[in-house]
Every structure is written in structure tokens, then in C-alpha cells.
Amino acid sequence: MSATFKYYPATFKFKYYQDPGHGWGAVKRNVLVDLGILNKISPFSYQKGDTVYLEEDCDLSTLTTALSNKGIWVEHVSKHTNGRSPIRNYASFQA
User: Could you state, in order of their start, the residue ranges of all structural domains in the chain?
Assistant: First the structure.
């Protein structure tokens, strides 16, 4: 774990994007590095710039478990669209 992780707040907040078929939690790549889970994220997640969109079925729970294990509460703000999410057009995640 990176030494900088000790400066994270007691509650970690992220945006949770959903379309009619799926959902993704958006986090900065450095969070995954700091938690030591970057290599545990699958190519079913997406990335754009320094933001990783963690797919809801597996990768998002990898994040929430890692945060919970460090005593950090997790909150999300839901963003829903009735159409196809543009996240589906982003590049597949690569560690």
C-alpha cells in the first residue's frame, strides 16, 4: 500500500453510473494503486484518462472490500440513464 493512502477520508465517495443493462463505479486509477488492487481488476471494466469504471459484478466489489478492510466507509452517488451509457465505448481496462 502506498504511504499516501493513510490520508484518505473515513468515507470514500464515488459515482455509480447505470444504464438499463449494467453499472460501473468511477474511481481514479491511483486509488486502485494505493489499495494494491490494480492487478485484480478485469478487462470487463473500462478506462478513460485517469478514471477507471469498475464493472458492478466483480471489480466494484473488489474495491469496496479493499476499502472496508481498511475501515473506510463507502458511499456512492447514482447516475442513471435510460439509454446506452457512453462508458460502453471507452477502452477496456488494462493494468
Answer: 21-92
For the segment 7-28, what is each residue's pLDDT rounded down to a tens digit? Answer: 566 889 999 999 999 999 999 9
4 pLDDT more than 70: no
Dihedral pair phi/psi, residue 2, rounded to 5°: -70, 145
CB 46 within 8 A of CB 87: yes
Q: Using one digit for the tens of pLDDT, what is the confidence trace for 32-85?
A: 999 999 999 999 999 999 999 999 999 999 999 999 998 899 999 999 999 999
Residue of 49, 80, 48, 74 lying closest to 60 (CA atoms): 74
List Cβ neighbours of 42 (8 Å cut-off, separation of 6 or more): 55, 58, 59, 93
Q: With 0-12 CB in 10 A as exposed, 13-18 as middle and 19+ as buried, what is 23?
A: buried
